Amino acid sequence: MSAISTTGLMLLSLFVACLVGYAWNLGLPDIGGDAAKYALNIGYPHPPLIRSLMWASQALFGFTPFFARLPVVLLGAATVALLFVLFRRLRLSLPVALALTLAFAVQPEWIRWMRYGYLSSTLIFFWTLAFLGLARLTDDPQDRRGPWLLFFGFVGGFWSQLQGMLFLPVYLFAYARKESRHGHTIWLLGLAQVVLFFLYIATSPLIVGVILSYAKAL
Length: 218
Prior knowledge:
The protein is an all-alpha fold. It has helices spanning 3-23, 35-40, 48-61, 65-89, 94-105, 108-115, 120-139, 145-160, 168-182, 184-203, 205-217. It folds into two domains: 1-117, no CATH class; 119-218.
């Protein structure tokens, strides 16, 4: 079996195993004080991405705790697969990359996040995506997928949790360093991020409230 097919089979196996394991009896316990309940509360001050996915999942499949948490579980299983890809991109050997990925996948705290629909897990998914883009750019400055992975990783993380802004210095550093090699792509993605940032501010009651409170204090 070739190296490519082996890696692909491992990716698929990791994703399916994590998806089945994380989703096992996912409807129990019922939604009480966990993150899924707060995310589904329309008045909860939180970026809209994962909340919208939760609502869409329930609208399509049924308004149950299982389907409320399902988007988090899907992204959690995808995070494990992305980590494996990232470790391989960092030139770790296949056994080491697999061992590190499995060590992350079976962490009790990570599994608890899946079971209770914690939204921080979605932030980790998008940051992993962004770091994969950064690793591709570092490995190959001519890589054309790297900027897009970095862009969608940062945007998705920002629209999942406000803490996604913590990735901004890495994002700007990577784009500034690679700008000359990617030309207009970098500028267009940067402009798109600025537009999305102001769109988010304009549509977020939490951010608007904070800005207005500071303005009144001045």
